[in-house]
Amino acid sequence: MAVNYNSEDIASFRNVWVFCEQREGRMMPTTFELISEGRKLADELGCELAGILLGDDVDGIAAEIGGYGADKVYVYNSPLLGTYTTDAYTKVICDAVEEFRPEVMLFGASNIGRDLAPRCAARLHTGLCADCTHLDIDLQGYLDFLRSGSSLDVDGMNFESRQFDVNTTLKMTRPAFGGHLMATIVCPRFRPAMASVRPGVMARRPFDQAGADGIEVLHPGFSLNRDDIRTEVVEVVKAARKLVDLIGADYIVSVGRGIASDVERGIALAQELAQELGGVVGASRAVTDAGWLSADHQVGQTGKTVHPKVYIALGISGAIQHKAGMQDSECVIAVNKNEGAPIFEGADYGIVGDLFKYVPLLIEEIRKAKAAK
User: What domains does the chain contain, in order, with CATH numbers?
Assistant: First the structure.
């Protein structure tokens, strides 16, 4: 550990950092989401936003994050960083944190981020909140978030009586107890405050070429040799597996427990409707828990957070855990036999009726409209 480094010396830490995950020289989309969110946090703190990028000859992609709001990027190039290993990435990142001391550090909750973030947090003697779905610095902004997304008596809560200053502390919100409620975590005594964030949760800012052209690219000195790495990557084998791209889809047709009377037909109708729209099939947790569709179809707090142009909910009651994953859809269409189903509260269009009756009619009308063009 660096001389004079003390994670409890909160005053010595400043700025927001984002781990910029790249694979084979290509920046992962989650990085741009985190940079966009990091820009908001940095503005609330009145500080700089920086990315930290590790790899082998990755200078060519470093400036990309400037287009989403980063002020600077720290680039660490080495053949030993070309393929991800926990030991190498942990050492370089922890050495960098000890040297530059950011007060907030964000990771994407990818396979790499889930492996790397807790190792770094443990070595740096600080806290980590994993799998976050919402982040705040500004207390008033957080209270507004609570007012709109919870049933708490926000105005009756006395935050000022706490033993620490919550006004400038990162407030990290994540699902708890299997997604049945949301918990907000703070790390008041140590820095950096670290969080991993679900892919697809944070909105990406529009790309700004001027920002990409103006970003400051830094190449700090660092020490890394083979003795620091206890594993050797012999071969990287890619498995061909077809996954549902819910996060990038413009049209999503999701099914819920309402297909239980005829699961195969319900899924087939959803697939047919999705195909006509050029979209994909999603599902509620009840459907994936029952094994009717695989987990990569799941939308919700314990699944994926989506932002499609059109979200069609078939036989989904609309529990708060599911709505949290699709509430930012541009248009929501719900079909449910129960007129009191919560899904109708946030729907732009609702059909009270049997999905097995109305979905074929919807498919037929879409086909007619397409043929008329």
Answer: 10-228 (3.40.50.620), 251-372 (3.40.50.1220)
